[in-house]
TrEMBL record:
It comes from Danio rerio. InterPro entries: GTP-bd, P-loop_NTPase. Residues 96-254 form the G domain. It comes from the Eukaryota. The lineage of its organism: Eukaryota, Metazoa, Chordata, Craniata, Vertebrata. This is Interferon-induced protein 44f5. It holds the Pfam family MMR_HSR1.
Length: 336
């Protein structure tokens, strides 16, 4: 939109749109000369331009700050490493990775995306969507098979109810301790008002290392980092303190990077060459208190019908890092 003002016209101006270098007159409107150009009738003309959204979010491309091989060979190697991974201790056959985060951040979508990669097609086993409240109401443990007839892979993704701003809504912080200690069973239905009361007999007997959580992932929407209000941030801080007390490693999965940056939406390979994404990684690192190296940008599958190489590489790279951190935990609590 272009607004053309001729001071000689007094309080009138013409507004038009520019299309293919042609000016199309849309109409006339009245303005206040004093506020627009100070009643200075010596002006020849005054033009007001509308700034388009892509100009507001202009992104500076920088030297890639992480090295990623965007090739089918790299995807295959990552899948092979994940398939062949074996926990350090024989008492653990599958590492358990707990996902925590606000509503609609992409926890369930991450599981669906990883499951899709290993199934070789799009899947939607975990309920995901854009509802205003958490679609996940149960504690779910999701093993993933290596293909339809394949063996279970050496990890389990654990999904929780989303964190919400209101008191008495979303995941109760007190439930986190029970989950971390392996005292909440699969399909346990959360009650936001009353935290879980583990079976007295089970709670007095320590859970096995296999049942406990070995790595925690905070799932954060890249488009909402700056908009995160005080309440969810306080909840995440309280959760982080509990997890720190148990020395469980933590990473951040920064989702929806394609929606946050136009360049990345156009080409996912630009994710580590985007100054905007780098700024968001640094911001979430500062706000959650985790190292920048522990922030993993990804794009979950959401509307695609076919798998995409770049998306697979980014997701598998993040999963590999989660397994590495779980390995560090097992090495610490059950050294060989």
């Amino acid at each position: 939109m272009v607004v053309m003002v001729d001071p000689a016209l007094g309080s009138s101006c013409i507004f038009a749109t520019m299309t293919n270098h042609q000016c199309i007159i849309k109409g006339e409107m009245h303005i206040n000369p004093a506020t627009l150009y100070g009643n200075n009738t010596n002006l020849i003309e005054c033009e007001v331009f509308k700034v388009e959204q892509n100009q507001v979010n202009a992104v500076i491309k920088i030297k890639p700050w992480r090295n990623v091989q965007w090739t089918a060979k790299q995807r295959d190697e990552l899948m092979k490493m994940i398939r062949n991974y074996k926990p350090l201790t024989t008492s653990v056959s599958q590492v358990k990775i707990l996902m925590i985060g606000p509503v609609r951040a992409g926890k369930s979508s991450f599981f669906n995306s990883i499951n899709s990669i290993f199934m070789g097609r799009m899947t939607s086993k975990a309920m995901s969507g854009s509802a205003g409240t958490s679609l996940t109401t149960q504690f779910r443990t999701y093993p993933i098979k290596d293909g339809r007839e394949g063996k279970p892979l050496p990890f389990v993704l654990c999904d929780t109810m989303g964190l919400e701003e209101q008191s008495g809504a979303g995941l109760d912080i007190e439930d986190i301790s029970s989950i971390l200690q392996g005292q909440i069973p699969d399909r346990y239905k959360f009650n936001p008002v009353t935290p879980c009361q583990p079976d007295e007999q089970k709670s007095t007997r320590p859970a096995s290392l296999q049942d406990k959580i070995h790595s925690v992932v905070y799932v954060i929407d890249a488009t909402k980092i700056s908009l995160m209000s005080e309440k969810p941030e306080e909840k995440l801080s309280a959760i982080r303190k509990k997890i720190n007390s148990l020395a469980i490693p933590q990473v951040v999965l920064m989702t929806k990077v394609d929606e946050a940056c136009p360049d990345v939406q156009e080409n996912l390979q630009s994710v580590y060459a985007s100054s905007y994404i780098k700024t968001k990684v640094q911001e979430v690192s500062s706000r959650l208190g985790v190292p920048v190296s522990c922030v993993l940008p990804v794009k979950n599958y959401s509307q695609e019908l076919e798998l995409e190489l770049n998306c697979d590489v980014l997701l598998l790279t993040a999963l590999q890092q989660m397994l590495n951190f779980a390995e560090d935990y097992l090495d610490d609590v059950a050294p060989m």
